[in-house]
Amino acid sequence: MEYLKLVGLYEELSKTTKKLEKAHILAEFIKNLKLNEIDDIMCLITASIFPLYDKRKIGFSDRLVLKAINKSSGIKTEDIEKLWSKLGGLGDVAEKLLEGKHQKTLSSESLTIKKVLENLRKLAELEGQGTVDKKVNLISELLANAKPNEAKFILRTVLGELRVGIAEGIIKDALAEAYDLDPNSIKKAMDLALDYSDIISLAKEGTILEAKIKVGRPLKVMLAILALDIDEGFEALGLPLQLEYKLDGFRVTIHRKGNEIKLFTRKLEEVSKQFPDVIEAVKKYVKGDDFILDGEVVAFDHKSGKYLPFQVISQRIRRKYDILESVKKFPVELNLFDILYYEGKNYMDSAFKERRELLTKIINEKPGIIKLTSHLVTDDLTKAKEFYHDALSKGLEGIMLKNLNSPYKPGRYVNGWMKLKPVLEPLDLVIVSAEYGEGKRASWLTSFTIACNTKEGLKEIGKVSTGVKEKDFEVTYSSLTKLLKPLIISQEGKAVKLKPKIIIEVGYEEIQISKNYDSGFALRFPKFMRLRNLEKNIKDINTIEDVKRIYDQQKGKNN
Ligand code: AMP
Hints:
It contains 21 helices and 23 strands. The protein is of the alpha+beta class. Strands 4, 5, 6, 7, 8, 9 and 10 form a seven-stranded mixed β-sheet that branches. Helix 2 crosses helix 11, helix 4 (62-73) packs across helix 9 and helix 11 packs across helix 12.
C-alpha cells in the first residue's frame, strides 16, 4: 500500500478532537484492509514501529532529524532551526521545506508502507561505529522520495509523536466497529500484547481467548490503584484480603517453556541476559517446565539481610557487558507473587487465592534467592495496620492490598489490587487553565492545569482530572465549573485560559522532572483533594522552591 494513503488517514484524524469520530474514521480505514496488512499499519499508527510485544526502540533524536533534513534538502542547519522554533515541530519544518521544492519530489518514486517501515526498523538494528551516519542516511533516503505531507508524518513517526490523537481506547473501539466485535474481548486480547491480526482473529473467537496465552511472549501486567489508607482498601476489596510487602525492585514476568526461560519487564522488554542468577534460581527452585510467573526482583544485601533500593538494581537492568561481575556485585532476591499459566492451563481467570495456593506448591523457597512475597491474610484492621508499619519500619515502600477473589487482569482495576504508601505532603496550587470534558461531561470543566509560584510568576506543574466527584459531594465538576466560568479569559476549542483565582490542594505520588510544564516539574498521578480558597491567597500557594525541596527529599528517600 502507498504510504500516502496512510497519510490521508492521519490528516483526516487530525481534523477532529472527538474520540468517537476518530474511532469511526479509523474503523472505516481498517475495515477494507487484508488481515495481514493490519499489523504494519498499526505499527505506524501507534508510532511504535514494532508490534506490541516487541519493545525495540529506534533511538532517533531531534538532532539526528535535523541532520537528515539538512542532508536531504541541502538547507543550512541554522535556517532549519529558525523554522523549527517558528513551527514547533520538525515534521512541520520538513513539510514546509519540501513544499518549496515541489518539482523534484514529483519525479521520484512513490513511497510504500513497506519501504517506510523497512527503513525505520533498520534504525533499531544499527550499533557501533558509523551508526549515526547510517541512521541519518536511512531517513534522508525516505525524505528524498517523500511528498511534503509524507515527510511531515515520517519525521513525527521517527520522533514517536504522530499528534493525530490515537490512543489504545480509540484503537479498541475502531477494531470493535470495523469487525463487529465486543470491545471487552478486544481489550483482553490487546492485553496479551499480540499482533493486531491475532487480536482480531482471537476476538472473533470470543471465549477461547484466554487459552491463547503464548509462553515466551510478554503480556501486560496487573497493576494497583492507590489507596489513601488501609480502611479504603478494606472497603474496596472485600474481607479477608491479602496484604503483601511492596518491594522497591523491578517487576518481572518469568516465562518457562522447557529449558528456555525468559524474563520480561513491566514495559515488556526482555532482560533475560542481564539476570542469569534469576534464571538459575527459577530452574532450580520452581517445579514444572511450562509456566508464566509474576514477581519483583529486588537488590539484596546478604550481609545485613536487607533489601536495597531500586537504584542499585537499575544498574543491572542496563548492563550489557561483564554481566557475571555485576551478578556478584549486586545480588538479587526474586520475590514471586502471582502465576498466570501452569502446565498448559491458563489461570488468569482463577481467583487470586487459588493462584497463590498453586504458587506455594511449586516454589521451594530459599531466602536471599527466591521466595514468595511476605504476606498476611486478614480481616482485622489492627493487624493490617501493624503489618503496614512493620513494612515501613523495614524500610520498604509500603504494602499491596489484594482481593482474594480477583482474577488476574492486566492494567489498573478497581476491586483488584491496591497499593498503600506514605503520601508526600500535598501542595496548594492555583488553577490557570482548564478543559471541558467529553460526552456527558461536555458541559463541565473536567481537567485543570495547576501552577505554583515562582519569582517570575506562576508556572505550570501538572493537570488534575481525578479526585473531583460527579455528584452529591461538596465539590463536584459542576460546582467547580460554576466557580471557574466567570474567570475565563479566552477559549480555544475545549480549552479555556483562566484568571488564576481558584486554589486547590493537590495530592500526588511523586514529583518528576519534566519538559511538559514550564516549571520544569510534573506531579505524577495528581489528585484533587479540596478547595483552599477560603484560607489562601495566591501569594500563599506553594512555590517552586517547595517543589524542589520535596523533589530532593523524595530523591534522598529513594537513594
Ligand atoms: P506503582 O509502580 O507504584 O504503580 O506500583 C506497582 C508496582 O509495585 C508493580 O509494578 C511492582 O513492580 C511493584 N510491587 C512491589 N511489590 C509488589 C507486590 N507484592 N505485588 C505486586 N506488585 C508489587
